[in-house]
Prior knowledge:
Elements: E1 5-9, H1 14-25, E2 29-34, E3 45-48, H2 54-67, E4 73-76, H3 91-117, E5 123-127, H4 140-160, E6 166-170, H5 179-182, H6 195-210, H7 216-227, E7 234-235, H8 239-250, H9 253-264
Parallel strand pairs: 1-2, 1-4, 2-3, 4-5, 5-6, 6-7
The structure holds NADP nicotinamide-adenine-dinucleotide phosphate.
NADP nicotinamide-adenine-dinucleotide phosphate (NAP) binds near residues 50, 80 and 212.
Family: Belongs to the short-chain dehydrogenases/reductases (SDR) family.
Keywords: Oxidoreductase
GO molecular function, one term: oxidoreductase activity
Amino acid sequence: MKNKVVLVSGASSGIGFITASYLYEQGYEVVGISRSYPKKEYAFKYQLCDITDESQIDLLKKWLEQEYESIDILINSAGMGISGAIENTPFDQVKKIYDVNVFGHYLMTKSLLSLIRKSKGGRIINISSIASDIALPFQAFYSMTKASIDAFTKALYLELKPFKIQVACLMPGDIKTDFTQNRTKPYQNENHLYDERIKNSLMRMEKDEENGMDPIRIAKKIYKMINQRKMPIRTTVGLSYKTIRVLQRILPEKFIYFIVKKLYG
Ligand SMILES: NC(=O)c1ccc[n+]([C@@H]2O[C@H](COP(=O)([O-])OP(=O)(O)OC[C@H]3O[C@@H](n4cnc5c(N)ncnc54)[C@H](OP(=O)(O)O)[C@@H]3O)[C@@H](O)[C@H]2O)c1
């Protein structure tokens, strides 16, 4: 039997890289993509592709069509972060994070669907974030893009059901990756009104990420999901994040945001 073909976006680092490496070790035929090659050693196939550029995605699709009859699993992991006050974030930076975190995933999915449909039981996993359910101050645009990915996932789940393509959203909490150092910080040297609060909020966030979960746990969760008979529509990893999701559903919203303000506000 042929190995299942998995395409992982954002495979040059972090969650995408570890997931691509782990699935390759488990015997999958893995193709990683991003704008640059991984800095660490890797054995899976690699194609350069900017997911915000339709012409590059078209070229990637042509290459995939030559190599494979179908794509079995698409993992949309490419992403970026941005921090700063809503009032001071330049519009072009807001458009950029939407281009990568939302429209990029949409373009990849739209383009590859015809290949995924050819698979017997295709699967799509979008990497969202726990920050999609609980919006964080000075991370508004990140939370907004991840909430969009959740909505995208749910609608796609319904649209693709008749084709037996399963769609899910994985919402990690703090993970120790290059995401922290790659985060765009347009607020720097900007507006003194928020400076102190942003500094404190970001310091806490970065500390949490640096002490965060090993990305291998996300890779193993993805492996479990693609082997599950039925994937959950939205899920997370780790007891503390599962508890946050439950509490968020049962506690009054004002109480939740009272805590969030204490931590990040
Ligand atoms: N780390 C966390 O704490 C955390 C928590 C929750 C959710 N997440 C989500 O997990 C996903 C992966 O993040 P990570 O932690 O692995 O961060 P990371 O190490 O910074 O990886 C981000 C990846 O996205 C790729 N990428 C960025 N822009 C791209 C573009 N235009 N086209 C193609 N690829 C692009 C980067 O590669 P190139 O620069 O080579 O293009 C890189 O491979 C993201 O969606 C993030 O929002 C992360």
